[in-house]
Amino acid sequence: MSVVFGRAPLRLSLGGGGTDLPSYYRDHGGFLVAGAIDKYVYMFVHTVFQRRYRMKYSEMEEVDSIAEIRHPILRETLQRHWHGNPLEIASIADVPAGTGMGSSGAYTVCLLKALAQARHTSVTPGSLAEAACHIEIDVLGEPVGKQDQYVAAHGGICAYTFNPDGSVEVYPLELEPETLREMRERMLLFFTGESRSASAVLSDQVSRSEAGDRTMLDNLHRTKEIGHLSRELLEKGDMHSYAELMHEHWEHKRKRSPGMANERIDRLYALARSSGAIGGKLVGAGGGGFLLVYTPHPEDTRQAMNEAGAQELTFDFEYGGAFASEFS
Question: Structure pTM?
């Protein structure tokens, strides 16, 4: 076997997002609900007949040593998790980077899973997620949280508790079939047409949280409460109340940091609401990416958003998490 294929799912934050950052959970503990979706980061790793390291992503690199690789996640992950011959690694994704669905975390998880398969080493979802968090947060110092890596590793719709000691508890939600049907049919995802760096948006939250800014901390405390309420409502199957909570969540989130929203995002959200959507929010850090809405009238909302030039991304939830396999 000479080629490893890997994939890791992207995610939708369903309540409590932002409390998974170390700048918050190390002092207060975090909690959120998120679901993996059937949109992925894909990776091929070629393990034989390579004289140099060849990296193919949005750019192309060919170097003699791992230390020369410019892509920070590739470089730091390979330095720590690969001690064999040079590799060729190629990656693509179902959505562009910077669109709020955790592509960076999924990329790191996918790479680690593929390398473990290439080493013929088993790895649990928890250890996979922690290794990815270590690369992004501890090694590279990115101002990001832990949900992206954990959702990509585990899959499914889960509640995540982020403890002050850094440990994470994962609770798969047992939702009724009717609840899942409503989520599949009435949750719609639209591209705002803009992408942004999550690090740029989150850096303000991190610095203010670490400084003990009362406005920021109160905002995140309420966001954590919304995460717990989201879990309760989803488990009860009360989707109307959950959708109303989504609206509160977004109104709360958009006050958190400058750049969280802009004129086009506000206009699209108002349009979705006027077409029948009860609630919604940007997924991810904010500032661009995808707008998630819940609407009892999906065709009306689709038509309104299509006329505004907001492309829909159809999706379903997925339950497998990160995957890798060898073939020749």
Answer: 0.95
